[in-house]
Automatic annotation (TrEMBL):
Start and end residues of each Core domain: 10-111
InterPro entries reported for this sequence: ATAP (IPR016092), ATAP_core_dom (IPR000361), FeS_cluster_insertion_CS (IPR017870), HesB-like_dom_sf (IPR035903)
Stored Gene3D superfamilies: HesB-like domain (2.60.300.12)
Organism listed in the record: Arsenicitalea aurantiaca
Listed name of the protein: Iron-sulfur cluster assembly accessory protein
Lineage summary: Bacteria, Pseudomonadati, Pseudomonadota, Alphaproteobacteria, Hyphomicrobiales
One Pfam family of this chain: Fe-S_biosyn
Amino acid sequence: MTDVSLAPNQVELTDRAARRIARILSKEPEGTALRISVSGGGCSGFQYEYDLVNEAPTGDDLVLERDTARVFIDSMSLEFMGGAQIDFVDDLIGQSFQIKNPNAVASCGCGTSFSV
């Protein structure tokens, strides 16, 4: 993964992540999107949540579209994720979405929780 430098209100979706999301969404009803949000919890204070939703984005959602992949991020989560890169990794340990977040000052070993 390369270093990214995005505006604070932007989030990048890599090609690998877009392909994986599109593959997941292809098995769901038309109009389904992946909603990524930040909630309190995890071993570092905050954690990412991934939900498949079949709803229109709200007025304050950031909508990322790449080919047939659609991702929604609410404005509150965007405050924690601004400038981040969403990637999909397939390695010896397993497969997972990973978020390279410039706002995170620490994260847990599994990469699903972080602190700011």
